[in-house]
Amino acid sequence: MLQRYALQRSSVMALKSHRLHNLTDTTSLGVAKKPRTMATESSSSSMKDAFTKYADYLNNQNDKRERIVKASRDITMNSKKVIFQVHRMSKHNREEVLQKAEKDLAFVTDQFVARLVKELQGTDFWKLRRAYSPGIQEYVEAATFCKFCRSGALLNLDEMNATLLPLSDPSLEPLQINVLDYLLGLADLTGELMRLAIGRISDGEVEFAEKICKFVREIYRELTVVVPFMDDSNDMKTKMDTMLQSVMKIENACFSVHVRGSEYMPLLGSEDPTSFLLGAPNVDI
User: Fold this and answer.
1) Closest Cα partner for 264 from 256, 275, 278, 254?
2) Residue 214: which pLDDT band, with cuts at 50, 70 and 90?
3) Residue 197, class by beta-carbon neighbours within 10 Å (0-12 exposed, 13-18 middle, 19+ buried)?
4) What number of other Cβ atoms are within 10 A of residue 43's Cβ?
5) Quick one: angle between helices 179-202 and 38-86, nearest 10?
6) Residues 133-172: pLDDT tens digits?
7) Considering the chain, what is the average pLDDT of its residues?
8) pTM recorded for the entire structure
9) What is the rounded distance in angstroms from the CA atom of residue 68 to the CA atom of residue 279?
């Protein structure tokens, strides 16, 4: 009895295994022989074309960014040379130094800023602003520095943008310096004016240093009103602290000249009444 039951069970299991094996072969055969439709091939091709287009766009943007960063570095380096040239100014060579500085600034505009303008014209400037902002800030600093030393006035944003218009293609949207980069460059200008004022005091040009002090103080006062309402003002707020230190240094230097200047009594026989030691005759002690 048990042998008959075992035999029947083994026969049933063998039959089930055989049916399952046939079903698997049939399913795999059906899947393998299922043809690809035209819709599947078309969608795959269109997706591949789309990703190829996106890849080309990103590669072109990266290449453009690299060129813009390089142009920004060149503007920064050569604008610093203009600033260093202005700092060579003294009461004896003022006109000569300023002419050389203005000539160097024109070279920066025609060679390096023009290259940046050609890269950016006709595009969305704000997308690439971080790539060229440092160079533009340094350029603003150099241009406003030369303008103040020449005429004692501030070179405003409209005047700067007007100089960039001839560099652009009239058929495309021209590059314009935005307000934020202009104000950041103006904040850096106060630091250079502080160094210039200290140098002029040491050279005896106290009135010029006082003029610088008044000019820097006015810039700081105006910016304290504007900066709190700026959206992207983190960099500006940091520079405001540095600007306040520059104002205080100029004020302290001018104040010290007025207070201590009256304490200096020229020695008898000195040819220069403002000199404390220089020009004094030999004195027997």
Assistant:
1) 275
2) very high
3) buried
4) 11
5) 20
6) 999 999 999 999 999 999 999 999 999 999 999 988 888 8
7) 80
8) 0.74
9) 57
Q: Is 166 helix (H, G, I), strand (E, B) or coil?
A: helix
Query: Using CA atoms, how far apart are residues 229 and 84, in angstroms rounded to an integer?
Result: 34
Is the pLDDT confidence value at 268 over 60?
no
257's tokens: 């000249």
d(CA 231, CA 237): 11
Q: Which residue has the higher pLDDT, 29 or 227?
A: 227
Long-range contacts of 126-134 (CB under 8 A, 24+ apart): 126/178, 128/64, 128/65, 128/68, 129/178, 129/181, 131/65, 131/68, 131/69, 131/72, 132/68, 132/69, 132/71, 132/72, 133/72, 133/181, 133/184, 134/72, 134/76
Write a three-state SS string for 40-74. Answer: HHHHHHHHHHHHHHHHHHHHHHHHHHHHHHHHHHH
Residue with tokens 């020009």: 279
Say how far residue 57 (Cα) sits from the centre of its chain: 24
The pair of three-digit structure tokens given for residue 219, joined into one six-digit string: 């810039």
Tokens linked to 241? 């602290």
pLDDT recorded at residue 22: 55
At residue 223, φ and ψ (nearest 5 deg) are -70, -30
